[in-house]
Amino acid sequence: MPEVKNDSDVLYYNTSQVKVGEIERYIITFNLYEGDVIPEDISLESLWVEVKNTEGLSYRAAYLIGPFTLYCDVKTSNYHHSQKIISSLDEPKYEPNLQPQQTFKAELSLHEIKRQYVWIVDIVSQIIFTSTTQTGFEISIKRPLCLVGGEVVPLSADSFNVNRLNTLDIWNLPLQIYTKQEKKHLVILTHGLHSNTTSDMSYIMEQIYKTQVNFPNEQIIVKGFTKNVCQTEKGVKYLGTNLAKYIIDELYDPSVTKISFIGHSLGGLIQSFAIAYIAVIYPWFFDKVQPINFITLASPLLGIVTDNPKYINLLLSFGVIGKTGQDLKLERDNSTTEPKLANKCDIDNDPLLFKLPGDPLNQALQLFKRRTVYANAINDGLVPLYSSALLYLDYENVTDELRLATEYDDLDDSAEIESILSGEAMSSNYYDENLQALKKTFVSPITKILNIWNPQTYLSKNSSKLPRLSMFKSATSILIPPLPDREFILDPSTRSKVILHDRIYTEEYINEIDKEFENPYLNDTNMLLKAFTIARGKGGDFEQKLEERIARMWHKNLSWRKVVVALKPDAHNNILVRRRFVNAHGWLVIDHLIENHFMAEENNIELAASDETYKSSINNHIASTAKILDITSNIEPNKKYSWLTRKEAESIFDEGPTGMISTVSEMFDSFAKTSLSGEIDRNNNQNKIVPDNTLFGDGNSDMIL
């Protein structure tokens, strides 16, 4: 980059900060020339954009209250991942983790003579654990000095412009672009553990909005609940209840006629609980709003029990990730000795994930036009295939398809998997680069805990060993997100097939298996079922049977489309494209999701028939299972579903260690603000300062509270 000699080189400069889940977008417009005539003295000198993380060097070690890093990318406005990039000058640039005091530089090339260039710069917060801390940065756009007759020629105001958008702008701008319609299709996105909707699911949001052109008679509105951020250790019930109330209190109005749900990881369970809660507390909702899509992405619908060694399950029971960890471990109430697996009305002490797939959720799910689960076959260090695919699956077909992929043509079974999952193999041999791809599916339990606390990182296949001391202190430098190959970004033809298996499964499929086999999966030797069968004979038989029972309940009277994918690490975050280029391996998964759920392939006759079926279904069972409840009454509402509606006593230990980081941080922040406000009030009273209301007009402000 040409050296900047003085301020005249700087075309634009701005400083800002981003908190957890926040994005700032800078749209740079540069007019190379004005009018229809190309000037003879036109300059094709490149512009340069610089983004600097302005936090102090000491913040690099402040991992648990941050991390104070930034994700940045720069691309042209017409970039699309389905198009091959010929010129390297058009290649998108990105920085996955911009550390404090580091600078990211990217060239804005003017290699073609065309009237206008437009680039888009995204700067995303990587903060995970607190909602009060922020990462500061500065952005500047520069150019070499343009000299004519020995004098600097400044750019005109019309030739250069930068439009800055914040997170709210990015999420709300599509609603202003498209023509408003009387009918609205509400799409709810729900994030997972230690994640957020506004930045981690923004890629999906933008892809969904692009399908608006396919629906001229309805308006798509994509929303996500933001107040569960840094609260995700408080349990599925707490999070799902919040989501349900958000949908009813803030999003619903009579113009909303359709609704879809997309949940990633824990978000799949959260949205399931929210649907059940709405069906009981607000039974009129599904009489007025037609459910369209229920979609999960790598969601632990059966929990995560049998693929964990005992000490990991013990940590989950003790609340290492709060109440959520206990839910995922299928923890039951301490007042009972064993779960009641029989169908009884009083099931309050059974694990939440055991109760969830039954009524009222089951009957509500029957109303959805489409129910789809996306599951990672390999390279997912958090959620095993059997849990995200609801156990019942043609594993032989998935394995055969996996072997056909060139990257996995040497796929074989692994004796190491059993020792890894039992906690016996903690040596660095597991991380040797020569291990087959499947072995990366079954990561070390320590790695799993690190992944739980840091969802955007994963051990590189080249990592020689796992850090044994000060692992959290070293996480920002050792655990880095694996990046896609340059060819993958530039050339669509180099991308391997990712959809291994795409089939609809019904309850009849389970019945047919039961006729042929007794306990078909408990003794299965397929390598993809190792995570489920590994506990056989080691005291985990009960958990296996419990997970199988839960899987059967998810299939009762329901058909499921199951899409199994093969993604490179980190598959758990690639599947939703958490960051546009770092998680680029998930592009084809989201393409599949959009093409099969948000394209207007049905004609009006089919839609009319579907609407009629929906109305019939709503009359048949919603009224019979979810009566209107008086939630203001002191009487326990609907005792059959009291486990769902009863308000639980909150405990600070529900949050887990990292959840408490956010709580304590917020307490100090609130205390500081209260103290400062009180000091200002005292000073104002002493000086008898009376505010001039004319300065504030009618009370309007540019600040959105």
From TrEMBL:
GO MF entry, a single one: monoacylglycerol lipase activity
Task: Write out the transmembrane intervals.
Answer: none
Q: Does the keyword Cell membrane apply?
A: no
According to its UniProt entry, one GO biological process term is:
lipid catabolic process
Domain DUF676 stretches: 181-387
State the superkingdom.
Eukaryota
UniProt KW keywords: Lipid degradation, Lipid metabolism
Q: Would you name any one GO CC term?
A: nucleus
Q: Which PANTHER family match?
A: LIPASE ROG1-RELATED, LIPASE ROG1-RELATED-RELATED
Q: Describe the family membership recorded for this protein in Swiss-Prot or TrEMBL.
A: Belongs to the putative lipase ROG1 family.
| Name under which the protein is recorded | DUF676 domain-containing protein
**Gene it is expressed from:** TPHA0C04670
